């Protein structure tokens, strides 16, 4: 391990040339001090045409701001609220990719990185550092970027899993900015019912995957009576942390990473971040591992639980957009859907409320024009709303329509039934399920 020499954020980013593609560590662990330094360079007219790549980020996002048009251009792999308006107005852009395949964009040279900017933990006695709450595709970025800048931040937990040598960094910067936290999202009564319906499909010993937010929290709240659950997911937060601390999630039945929690990035309270610090029971891994369907499938009884913005009654799932408006991204949904269905005894579940908060039906005869299909109908299995659960696997289009309409909002069923009749013809009503 070479002696650690720190430089200022301004000195570190001064070596990044114009026209570079830049990777940012993401979610709760964005290296804001380096971004601010790049803004100062851009304001001084010292750099132009920088392209930024990242997962969803928290906090200010000047790299997508119209004020930096021509100097910065954001091309994220997953879109968060801080960049969403600028993406949908054209000042920034979305790069569609399964998150588990995003490291390959760097490793195979589809995106040639001029720089990787990442938050890292304090080094251990062997000179190894952790990427903490945001491993994501940063390992691949560190491997391939021309310039690698690490922000050593004592608030970044030292999480086991995929570690990096301190010698991999060209420049090191000190910063003690706290990581972004997210408050626990309280489920609505509707989400509580959906959580119960999902929990009814989970059995003792299953290995689960789900995201964060009110609906996953509702499901987690219904799993307290289960035993020996495993967790292999791309991310988790406080709802699942409660189950881990209670011993409900212990990984005892996992075939790989037995007894371990596997994830790639986190967003939650300080309790979540503290929990993974020097905890051998948690592995924060490269997302090429956590989201690989072949890896996911090795754990029996894998339960992939994801959501949707809209679903048609043949089983096509839109989750990244609302019509042509980009809302988030492909994420890892299809990777976990396929991993779960390949798993022995596994289930893939798409759970969502039957209507939006504005009262618009989410189960439709045809997806909105321009909507992205994240999970195709050929991969569709279980669907859950507050009105029940149905399994579309092995069902024809007309059978699927009947099943999906049965879990739609009661006030929408007559309309959907009429639209199914118009689509499938007069014999549709003679079809029973």
Strand order of the largest sheet: 4-3-2-1-5-7-9
- For this structure, the CATH topology of the largest domain is Glutaconate Coenzyme A-transferase
Major beta sheet summary: 7 strands, parallel
Mean pLDDT: 96
Give a written overview of the molecule:
There is one protein chain. The protein has 433 residues and is α/β, with parallel strands linked by helices. It has helices at residues 9-13, 32-43, 84-88, 102-107, 138-144, 189-199, 214-221, 238-245, 270-276, 287-290, 293-296, 333-342, 397-406, 410-424; strands spanning 21-24, 50-53, 72-76, 93-94, 113-120, 128-130, 147-152, 163-165, 171-174, 207-209, 230-231, 235-236, 261-263, 265-266, 282-284, 302-306, 310-312, 317-318, 321-322, 325-326, 347-351, 363-364, 382-385, 388-391. Helix content is 26%, strand content 19%. The strands form 7 sheets. A 7-stranded parallel β-sheet has the order 4-3-2-1-5-7-9, sandwiched between helices. Helix 6 (189-199) packs across helix 7, helix 7 packs parallel to helix 8 and helix 13 (397-406) runs antiparallel to helix 14. It is globular and about 75 Å long. The mean pLDDT is 96.
């Amino acid at each position: 391990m070479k002696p650690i020499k720190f430089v200022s954020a301004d000195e570190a980013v001064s070596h990044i040339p114009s026209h570079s593609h830049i990777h940012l560590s993401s979610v709760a662990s964005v290296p804001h001090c380096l971004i601010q330094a790049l803004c100062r360079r851009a304001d001084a007219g010292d750099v132009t045409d920088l392209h930024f790549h990242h997962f969803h980020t928290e906090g200010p996002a000047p790299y997508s701001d119209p004020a930096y048009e021509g100097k910065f251009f954001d091309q994220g792999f997953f879109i968060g609220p801080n960049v969403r308006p600028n993406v949908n107005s054209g000042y920034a852009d979305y790069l569609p990719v399964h998150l588990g395949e995003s490291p390959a964009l760097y490793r195979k040279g589809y995106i040639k990185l001029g720089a990787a900017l990442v938050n890292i933990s304090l080094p251990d006695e062997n000179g190894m550092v952790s990427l903490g709450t945001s491993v994501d595709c940063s390992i691949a970025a560190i491997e391939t970027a021309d310039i690698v800048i690490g922000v050593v931040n004592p608030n970044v937990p030292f999480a086991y899993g995929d570690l990096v040598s301190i010698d991999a960094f060209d420049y090191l910067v000190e910063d003690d900015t706290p990581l972004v936290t997210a408050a626990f999202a309280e489920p609505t009564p509707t989400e509580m019912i959906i959580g119960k319906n999902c929990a009814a499909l989970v059995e003792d010993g299953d290995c689960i995957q789900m995201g964060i937010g009110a609906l996953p929290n509702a499901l987690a709240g219904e799993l307290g009576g289960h035993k020996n659950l495993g967790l292999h997911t791309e991310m988790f937060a406080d709802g699942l942390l409660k189950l881990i601390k209670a011993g409900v999630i212990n990984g005892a039945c996992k075939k790989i990473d037995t007894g371990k929690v596997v994830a790639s990035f986190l967003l939650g309270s300080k309790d979540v971040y503290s929990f993974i610090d020097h905890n051998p029971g948690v592995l924060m891994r490269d997302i090429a591992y956590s989201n690989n369907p072949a890896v996911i499938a090795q754990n029996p009884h894998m339960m992939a639980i994801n959501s949707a913005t809209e679903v048609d009654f043949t089983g096509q799932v839109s989750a990244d957009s609302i019509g042509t408006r980009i809302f988030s991204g492909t994420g890892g949904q299809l990777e976990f859907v396929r991993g779960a269905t390949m798993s022995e005894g596994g289930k893939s579940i798409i759970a969502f409320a039957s209507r939006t908060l504005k009262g618009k039906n989410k189960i439709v005869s045809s997806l909105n024009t321009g909507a992205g299909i994240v999970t195709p109908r050929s991969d569709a299995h279980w669907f859950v709303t507050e009105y029940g659960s149905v399994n579309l696997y092995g069902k024809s289009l007309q059978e699927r329509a009947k099943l999906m309409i049965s879990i739609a909002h009661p006030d929408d069923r007559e309309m959907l039934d009429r639209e199914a009749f118009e689509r499938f013809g007069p014999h549709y009503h003679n079809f029973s399920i």
